[in-house]
Amino acid sequence: MDEVAQGARLIAARYELGPLIGRGGMSDVYLATDAKLGRRVAVKLLKSTLAADPVFRSRFRHEAQAAARMAHPTIVRVYDAGEEIVRGAGGSETIVPFIVMEHVEGRLLKDIIDDGPLPLAEASRIAEGILTALEYSHRAGVVHRDIKPGNVMVTSSGQVKVMDFGIARAISDSAATVAQTSSILGTAQYFSPEQARGETVDARTDLYASGVVLFEMLTGRPPFQGESAVAVAYQHVSEAPVAPSTLNPQVPAAMDAVVLHALAKDRFERFQTASEFRADMTAAANGIVPPKRVDAPADFTSTLFGVNPQATTDTEAAMRQLSVDDDERRSGTQSRPPVAWIWAGIAVIAVVIAAVLFWALNLERTPRRSSSMPSCAPNPSR
């Protein structure tokens, strides 16, 4: 935590900070007490250097609000977010963005992996929890962008909890280069190829990162390693990963196939949805070879789960799309007449117009009878 912020023991006149329980490249996490509701929470204080950018602060608020709308057992709830102005000894003021989250008792997946590769069943179970959280968030139009073991918590009862939804977007959009992004987000080991190339990301970016996490759980190390973030990002773009079984012979061939499918460089060749990934992984963990998927190129300019995944720059719009009732959405797309009837109607109208014009032209050419009749008026000279 920044030295200036160390004296701030009360955040937003409500959250009483307790001991430091976590520290990362972009934030420090404190156990705290919500004085109004009397419950324990976790308060994440972001580095003040991030808050120097007003664009970041705006994006941070927007994304934190979107994350706060998501309520699912596999997602760490976001209760509140804001900015705290901390005054230093010399009178200087520092803006410290903060997030108030559900406090989860458990261990980070990162620490669990440090103990060594996980058994196949346990790795699959944890990955299933991650993919369930992603399926829910993608339906809400929220792409995580930073799936990694440091953002996954496993509770004492074994429940999987994914945290920091939406926050990575606000941070990564404020970073200009891969090196800057990796220094903020902590690592480039979980970058998708499209992230490393600086391209637009969508739901399939999270699925790639989930494949990296599954690989690491099965082998004890990520698929790509290097001396710098740029070197690792280059490998994600250009080098094929080895099968997990080459590092851990206990991994069956069926699980190798699932992991390598998730790590496809081309996003159209990897799993297209979290439910597809979860189904194949569960089958492989049970000794069943998943059927080879022939994924037709999805049109990601339209919709995924009824939401445009590239429209997540405005998660408010995505939420509104999801609020539309399914029957209303179907009626909006199925109530239109068939195309054949439309063209038939146009043809009939064209024939009627042509007939009217033909009749009108012939009417003008027909001579008037009154002009050809002889005069019957009496002769006044008689």
Description:
41% of the residues lie in helices and 15% in strands. The protein has helices spanning 48-51, 54-68, 109-114, 120-139, 167-172, 178-185, 193-196, 203-219, 229-238, 253-262, 274-285, 315-323, 326-334, 339-365, and strands at 10-11, 15-23, 27-34, 39-46, 78-87, 93-102, 106-108, 152-155, 160-162. The strands form two sheets. The chain has a six-stranded antiparallel β-sheet. A three-stranded antiparallel β-sheet has the order 7-8-9. β5 and β6 (93-102) form a beta hairpin. The model is unreliable at 1-7, 174-186, 295-336 and 369-377 (pLDDT under 50).
* Series of secondary-structure elements, N-terminal to C-terminal: EEEEHHEEEHHEEHHHHHHHHHH
Strand order of the largest sheet: 1-2-3-4-6-5
Oligomer: single chain
Poorly predicted tracts of residues: 1-7, 174-186, 295-336, 369-377
User: Which fold does the CATH topology refer to?
Assistant: Transferase(Phosphotransferase), domain 1
Taking the sheet with the most strands, its summary is: 6 strands, antiparallel
Radius of gyration: 32 Å
Brief summary:
This protein has helices at 48-51, 54-68, 109-114, 120-139, 167-172, 178-185, 193-196, 203-219, 229-238, 253-262, 274-285, 315-323, 326-334, 339-365; strands spanning 10-11, 15-23, 27-34, 39-46, 78-87, 93-102, 106-108, 152-155, 160-162. With 382 residues, it is of the alpha+beta class.
